Amino acid sequence: MEKVTLNVQGMSCGHCVKAVEGSVGALNGVSNVKVHLENGTVDVEFNKDVVTIDTIKETIDDQGYDVK
């Protein structure tokens, strides 16, 4: 398993947390996702043989947030 912390801009409330955790958590190969609103970060544990970091970033971007 790979672990990565992404800097994500635009998250500000519980809806943002649910949108990001729900969409990323639904990806095949993602085992854990945790949003930290206070620092604007998202921790993701995933199997790099099943899902790419680019797919994870695109999924967050599709929810309307900027991944830096």
Automatic annotation (TrEMBL):
Cross-referenced CDD domains: HMA (cd00371)
GO molecular function: copper ion binding
GO CC entries: cytoplasm
Superkingdom to which the source organism belongs: Bacteria
Signal peptide (UniProt feature, chain positions): none
GO annotation terms (biological process): copper ion transport
Keyword line: Chaperone, Copper, Cytoplasm, Metal-binding
Chief subcellular location: cytoplasm
InterPro entries: CopZ, Cu-bd, Heavy-metal-associated_CS, HMA_Cu_ion-bd, HMA_dom, HMA_dom_sf
Residue ranges occupied by any HMA domain in the UniProt entry: 2-68
Location of the protein in the cell: Cytoplasm
Family matches, as NCBIfam families: chaper_CopZ_Bs, copper ion binding protein
Protein name per Swiss-Prot or TrEMBL: Copper chaperone CopZ
Organism for this UniProt entry: Schinkia azotoformans LMG 9581
